Amino acid sequence: MQITELRIAGFKSFVDPQDLPVQPGLTGIVGPNGCGKSNLLEALRWAMGASSARAMRGGEMDDLIFSGSAGRPARETAEVTLILDNSNRTAPPEFNGSDTLEIVRRIRRGAGTSYKLNGRTVRGKDITLLFADASTGANSPALVRQGQISELIGSKPQNRRRILEEAAGIAGLNTRRHEAELK
Ligand code: ATP
Ligand code: MG
């Protein structure tokens, strides 16, 4: 699976819809302080199922919606779409019917968040599992936030274990075990 496009609308500082193709190889995002570089990475993590507002640098999830600026009113919804190339069929078997996967996550002010996978409504857990089985996701150690290294150094052993488990690719199994135990 490979991310080939990120589409953002109404998310944090990205008020107007933006389609950002992701080319193979290395991509650099450059710009002055406060231009939205970290917001882009947050959009990516959010669409992959990030569930805590704190991880998104906000007090609550509604803080992800464009809150207005000089001359531009606040928005009521935010939407992030991830397009994944699955032509090598590395997505888990239940998603393997199509060459392209389209994940859409939406939030409406005061009304919470919803996900669609190829047009079908799914749970956040389904999206988390899709990425966990591919050894990636919103909490992947491959996505390093500003200040995260010092957080890691100061964190509890259980947290470090979680990070190691994600790196080892068994986070998906743990999520499935947890789900099975709840049933
Ligand atoms: P740095 O180089 O300092 O790390 P950056 O390019 O990573 O900067 P971001 O942190 O991505 O910048 O963007 C911060 C900007 O996003 C701020 O100007 C902030 O006001 C704006 N912002 C954050 N949340 C919202 C929101 N809900 N609505 C509108 N603007 C927002
Ligand atoms: Mg930043």
From TrEMBL:
ATP binds at P32, N33, G34, C35, G36, K37, S38, N39. It comes from the Bacteria. It is found in: Cytoplasm. Contains large globular domains required for ATP hydrolysis at each terminus and a third globular domain forming a flexible hinge near the middle of the molecule. These domains are separated by coiled-coil structures. Belongs to the SMC family. Required for chromosome condensation and partitioning. Homodimer. This is Chromosome partition protein Smc. It comes from Hyphomonas adhaerens MHS-3. The chain holds residues 1 to 183 of 1153 of the full protein.
